[in-house]
Amino acid sequence: MMNEETTSPNKRGAVSQFFLRLSQIYQGWLDKWTPYTKIRWAACIGLILIFLLRVFICQGWYIVTYALGIYHLNLFIAFLTPKIDPALDLDDDQGPELPTRSNEEFRPFIRRLPEFKFWYATTKSTVIGMICTFFEVFNIPVFWPILVMYFITLFCITMKRQIKHMIKYKYLPFTHNKPRYQHVDNAK
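Now predict its structure.
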């Protein structure tokens, strides 16, 4: 009886050590992938295309595809939205605001969902969606053109609202073509 009590904590310790080491290796791989933005997104888009090809070839799992599309749309909206929404900032003392005039102080755009977390959630959800296509229980028969039309309508309405919000509060969530200032060496 004493042997059972002494070996039980060691087994739990070995199992927890195994999963701890596994999570450290996983986090190490994520850390190595962090600086390679274009490669990460290319792999993610490739994974999404493989998922869509599987759905097209198998002619099923439209509910899974629709749910995945809605989830990706929500992630994209969170990626485009500022962390502190100026529409909700009614009182001036609550926190920083985005500048609305050219003479106001410049404040950088901070996203509600950072790029790496956006990529990670998109990739992880696509892998989960791909795994769901291997189980027939998720292959619910639906008339897929209605889902496609509803998704397109939802996408257009959501993006129209987001673009109006961006115009009203004068922010641009992309850094492409924004001016970058470099240090000028005056020590000549």
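The chain has a mean pLDDT of 84.
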